[in-house]
Amino acid sequence: MTNPDENEFELWERARQNDGAAFAGLFELHRDRVFARAMVLMENRHDAEDVTAAAFFELWRKRRTVRIVRGSALPWLLVTTVNLARNGRRTMARYDRLLRTVARSDSADLPDAESIETRQRLKASLAGLAPLDGALFVLTVLEGLPVSQAAEAVGLKPATARVRLHRVRLRLRAELHDLNPTIRPAEGTFS
Amino acid sequence: MTTRQPIDRDFATSIHAELGAIGTTKSRLQRRQRRTRLALVGGIAVGVALATTGAAIVVNTFPGSTTVTPAGNPVDSTHSGTATVELGAAPEGVNSIILDITCISDGGKISVPLTPGTVQDATGKVVDSMPETAEWDCATRSTTVHIKDAYLAPDATSVTVTADPGTKWRGVARYGSASTSPWGINAKGQTYGAPNKKYGIPDLQGALATNGKLGFIDTKEFNAFHGTGFINVYESDGTTVIGEFSIGTP
Question: Which of A103, A169, B76, B123 is such that its CA lies 20 to 30 A from the CA of A45?
Fold first, then answer.
């Protein structure tokens, strides 16, 4: 996967100045990772696509306050994806009209029953967590980010994040114990 | 076990194009945001109007308000389509153009460059400026549009109004000298007052509650709010709730 490098930092500097090409570039860079995360959290492909698009639209809308971690917007995008998937109806409504007019092919591959159950239970568990804890869990356990970076992404001190994560792990381990193999870490590492 | 599926190619292409259009007039995202912003600015404008008619609060004492003092003689001219309004030599100390535009045609878009707005970082510090325009369509606005902060570029003596070809309009323009009063600061250290182009957006910004009371909405609450509904309107202490502010509902 692409490294978050100076290129992305430059892209972000331009994006902050309302540069469309820069936002399109960030979309190319991170869309697969964001979509993959949305797919695990949403009921179907169509909704996952909507959440992916909305995460990037939000990146634009909140460009003045987005937290960039180690030169990358990806952690912020992932946190936003989780939040949109959790309770994004109001935010999604903002983009409803736009998304309804977006062209897409009709292919609808049905996920297997097991993965449906996994995502439903994962979603239910996340819904029971405070938004911050949910975001921390997804960034560290599912996306493989170091705690320090995840903490930075959600605006916590690393020590505080560690304590919260510990509690979340204990709780989710109990709730999702039998599904353990289906929770996979992200491919590659985030440097 | 889920197999990783790629994002739909057509969908991705469309979103890529939509993001790429940001910063251009084709951007539907920006059009959407302008509508939302107008709703808020409308709320503030109505609030100020109410305050002046009720004579309870004088507009000029609203902290952070910008007062524009006219300078020089007005130039009255009629144009068709895009045109530059020339004002002649600029008096000392002017920094904006006051422009009253009236549509003569029944339709066609008009756009006027405004004094650039500010870009603030997370702490509220002004770090950059951002071009702004006032835009409307003669089909929906036939009465005069009063613009007190049309952009006067450094050393310029004119302003260019962009209009659709064939759209006739009348403009009365004169130089202006804008000055902005400082925001108030409450006991909690929050700034309160009117958003302005000099300092940006205060922590608490003036807004009209649905019950007709004039107060302040918390900028953080406003930014965090998604969709349509209501947020609190406070007194300048940022704590006492005096009403609610409607977002996105007509």
Answer: A169
